[in-house]
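Exercise 3.2. Students should predict the tertiary structure of the chain below and write it as structure tokens, then compare their answer with the key that follows.

Predict this chain's 3D structure.
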Amino acid sequence: MTEIVSQSTAARHELIAFRVGDQEFCVDIMQVREIRGWTQATPLPRAPNYIKGVINLRGAVLPVVDLGARLGLAVTEVTARHVIMVVNQGSRTLGLLVEAVSDIINMTEDMIQPTPDVACDTVKTFVKGLFSIDGRMISLISLERVLPEVEAEAA
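Answer key:
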């Protein structure tokens, strides 16, 4: 676990960091319900390329989003090492296909830097901000943008 100590009085957040390809991202740990090993997903006809399909999670149908493909990176070639992070996105639950979960990070709001202006609009849509820790640059993902309401209904 990586602990960052700040002298600030800003609110502290716990984030869970994970890898997608060569990049590291994180989300608020309170949005993560569980982390499961890869389970083969049942494809959905005419679904966007970033929807791997659906899995049965204790009787509930759970859509699985290939986060790499959704962020505009390469479509993930799934191996047994990949995991599904089950996350709450508002009133919905979905699975995010990621390479590996790497860390739990404690940080404060003042440590987050805004997404640079040179980033494309797609990046700005998904990335709320960036921060550096132990020489690593980590992007904070906005889960609300991963599967918008209209697309959620289609999935």
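Discussion points: Helices lie at 67-70, 121-126, 149-154. Residues 102 and 148 are 26 Å apart (CA to CA).
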